[in-house]
Amino acid sequence: MHFALPPRKTSHPPPYARASRSSPIRRKQLQFGAIIACGVLLLLYLATYLFSGYSERAPSGTPEVVVVTILDEATMSDEYRDRIKENRNYYAARHGYTTFFPDVSDYDFGTSPRSWAAVPAMRHALTLYPHSSFFFLLSPHGLIMNPSVDLKQHILNPKRLESIMIRDAPVVPPDSVIRTFSHLKGDKIDLVLTQDNEGLSQGSFILRRGEWSKFFLDTWFDPLYRSYNFQKAEGHALEHVVQWHPTILTKLALVPQNLLNSYGVDIQSRGGRDAMHKEGEFVVRLVGCELDSSRYCEKEFDQYYQQWKALLNKGSI
User: Fold this and answer.
1) pTM exceeding 0.70
2) Does residue 278 surpass a pLDDT of 60?
């Protein structure tokens, strides 16, 4: 008796045979499809981010500008610190800004000069106010003499900034081979500085919030630069990073000194009388008073503080 044998399996499947769900071919198809889908989604996200102008919405009541002044309880009297705060708080309240007054002792900068504390103080402010747009650092040895000046219109408006920025000029006068760019747009600027006859002036500057600003401050505060013992400490370090890091130079705008950083003393090497504060100008700084044993910062400050109070009482500003 003969039994029918099952048909022999062929090694050539019929055309268009459906692959098993668990077959290697099917798994490869699914993996390839997943890669393609992820790539498409990534491209869509990047296109949206780059071209839609998307930015995180700030909570209601967020101050657009933070005025940062670092104090030093160890070297400043209570009255001096209180007057500095009064000056900044009055200005901030007038424009809907806010203030931040850290102390030098809040930061660890090793054996470097105490003036280095201004850099981590700005980094600290960025963390405390993550939704604010701009951070205005002003040395404690200075006053806002004209509180009617709104930083946004005075400097930060992109069109205004384009009209006042100093183009194609030596970063460190008089003859630095590194020059400011001539083609920058106001809405691309993240750092606003001034310079005097000796170099960049870091006692009064404005920084825009963003990842770039964090990178800039971290670069400036690098332990390597602090270990160099520059003659002017963080001032010379700033000049170094601005001149030799194109990523920083491309975000920098230098503006005329009297707009942000007029001086309260006649120092010939730093511009003499041309650099001195004139009535109606925004800020006066007692540049170098803390470094000169023949000068007394609080006494010089009091002279301008009394002028400021008198103008307020008259309603002149």
Assistant:
1) yes
2) yes
